[in-house]
Q: What sequence folds into this?
């Protein structure tokens, strides 16, 4: 299932001691490497040293194997162009480690703090990641990385933990609303303006292409997908068994697909629900790694604040129903905005119908209304136009941006290593003046 938008788990769960230790080690290594660079520069009269020649041109960091769906279109584009890239994953069992790409090198970076320790000292020109919290938690900027680029893993913006995007150099966006939110955060926090590039959404494009080449499922009777997020504010924690009971009273088939984190953070609840509502001819639990097939099969989606709303509504063009969780934005970037309603939540009343304790008993009737509403279909078209630009071009535009940035950084570094013509002219003028005065 797609990741959470409103409640995102950042990598900042390690100890303060680890962060301080890594900072000290990184600083010492930096001083040592800088000293070596200066010595080499002196003895080689400014020739590019080994440190630069060993720099990784493009590094993609995936903090979990489930982010491959976001990065695959970009990696495929790099592969098509014959450009070398390194892809670091934190999962030893990540299936990408068995993939055979000619120009994409897949590397297991270690789990947890080991991966961040390696990232904090990596030597790369450009780092691309969907992970927020750079410079906030364990993940610190490496002194040997030239540029950090953030790519969203969904259409949301502002739903990261506080300061989640603040220290990236650039952010790739899919809609003008994201740019507006980022600029407001920068102004309120007195941050320098980041480079914002409107490229689109590569993994949406890939899923749409797959859908266009897949036969649409036509069910004898509607299939309802209950796909909640996790945590105290999730629909299963708030409404629990009652929502499943009411769904089973309808004539529809039910698929329950909890967020993967539910089986960790809400393990007892999941065990209890699966025991009480086992798989049957009417109800199915789905834990498949990829959500494409289940989204294609379902006719309507019920969730809370999961980003899967937008996959389902905008790619598959199907109706949704939502539960207003009223979760606390105090720990999230939205808290700093004038409008503290998360973008993903502000659109839900337009895209679908709300369910709550008061109308839960009428859920069958509400589902029927959503399934046959032309108005909801028109709203989906409008939101798609606003939030998902450059449809079909996200990966190519992303790689265009990264390769152009790489050339820009290389040229800038070349100019820094070579005395400028103005400096040469000034030096020659000074020497001529000194000779005349002698």
A:
């Amino acid at each position: 299932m797609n990741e959470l938008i409103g409640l995102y788990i950042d990598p900042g769960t390690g100890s303060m001691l680890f962060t301080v230790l890594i900072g000290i080690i990184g600083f010492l290594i930096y001083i040592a490497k800088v000293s070596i660079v200066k010595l080499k520069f002196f003895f080689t009269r400014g020739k590019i040293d080994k440190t630069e020649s060993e720099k990784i041109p493009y590094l993609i960091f995936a903090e979990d194997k489930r982010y491959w769906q976001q990065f695959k279109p970009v990696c495929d584009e790099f592969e098509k162009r014959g450009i070398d890239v390194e892809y670091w994953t934190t999962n030893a069992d990540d299936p990408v480690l068995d993939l055979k790409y000619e120009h994409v090198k897949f590397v297991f970076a270690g789990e947890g703090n080991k991966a961040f320790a390696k990232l904090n000292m990596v030597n790369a020109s450009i780092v691309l990641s969907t992970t927020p919290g750079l410079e906030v938690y364990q993940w610190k900027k490496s002194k040997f990385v030239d540029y950090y680029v953030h790519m969203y893993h969904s259409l949301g913006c502002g739903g990261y933990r506080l300061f989640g995007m603040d220290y990236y150099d650039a952010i790739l966006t899919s809609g003008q609303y994201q740019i507006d939110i980022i600029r407001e955060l920068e102004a309120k926090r007195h941050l320098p303006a980041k480079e914002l590039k409107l490229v689109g959404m590569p993994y949406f494009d890939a899923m749409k292409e797959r859908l266009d080449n897949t036969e649409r499922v036509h069910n004898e009777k509607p299939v309802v997908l209950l796909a909640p997020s996790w945590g105290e504010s999730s629909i299963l924690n708030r409404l629990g068994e009652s929502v499943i009971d009411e769904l089973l009273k309808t004539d529809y088939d039910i698929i329950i697909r909890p967020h993967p984190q539910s089986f960790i953070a809400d393990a007892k609840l999941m065990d209890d629900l699966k025991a009480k509502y086992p798989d049957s001819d009417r109800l199915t639990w789905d834990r498949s790694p990829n959500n494409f097939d289940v989204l294609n099969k379902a006719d309507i989606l019920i969730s809370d604040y999961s980003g899967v709303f937008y996959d389902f509504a905008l790619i598959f063009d199907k109706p949704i129903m939502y539960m207003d969780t009223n979760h606390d934005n105090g720990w999230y970037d939205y808290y700093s905005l004038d409008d503290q309603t998360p973008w993903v939540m502000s659109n839900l009343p337009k895209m679908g119908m709300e369910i709550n304790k008061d109308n839960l008993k009428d859920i069958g009737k509400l589902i029927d209304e959503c399934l046959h509403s032309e108005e909801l279909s028109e709203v989906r078209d409008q939101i798609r136009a606003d939030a998902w630009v450059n449809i079909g071009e996200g990966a190519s535009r992303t790689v265009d941006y990264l390769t152009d940035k790489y050339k820009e950084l290389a040229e800038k570094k070349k100019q820094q290593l070579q005395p400028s013509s103005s400096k040469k002219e000034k030096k020659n003028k000074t020497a001529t003046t000194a000779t005349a005065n002698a």
Notes: The chain has 18 helices and 13 strands. Residues 202 and 394 are 4 Å apart (CA to CA). The first helix runs from residue 16 to 44.
